[in-house]
Amino acid sequence: MSGIVTPETEAYAAEHTTPGHPLLVQVEAETRASQEAHGMMVGLLEGRFLETLVWLSGARRILEIGCFTGYSALSMAAALPPDGSIVTCELDPDRAATARRHFDASPWADQIEIRLGPALDSIAGLEGPFDLIFIDADKTNYANYYEAVLPLLADRGLIVADNVLWSGRVLDDTDQSDDTVAIRAFNNLVRDDDRVTCVMATVRDGVLLIRRNTRAGGG
User: What architecture is domain 7-212?
Assistant: First the structure.
């Protein structure tokens, strides 16, 4: 994944972010060493960002679409209250097993549940409300995930969608690859959806924050 900001700026931001929990440092090192697609991991900056969103919102129930090796779920779990919980969906059984091992080594093992299989099938078997929903899975299904989880979102809940700037490729009209087209369509869908209010932040690869409109006229 190419950065949105310069590598020097990204490094400076990381240097001025509270270091990760020792377990997360270990998870990051192992993921970088063992996973060819290690760029899918959110890493320190976005992990702390997610943790802060959980803390600010007071979220108790979290749904994650795309577990990978568990870094993002562990980051969010760190800010959960003792009665909080995370359901995280993962398609790949090997990655799910790796994440489960990391969860079991953490202080939050009993608060994280993995649902293995296609995420849309997993979502269909869940009941809301969820206070925070993190979407970070296959890009071609982003719009489908959004429509599936919006009914499960708490009135004051937050949907967080990752990779919405897609290394800047959303700006390149010549890029008509499936993932890029899907991300562009998703971004437009949410922007134009009068059910929600959203803001796109240039954190790492772009993060879209989405909340329900609770008053007529939005906002």
Answer: 3-Layer(aba) Sandwich (3.40)
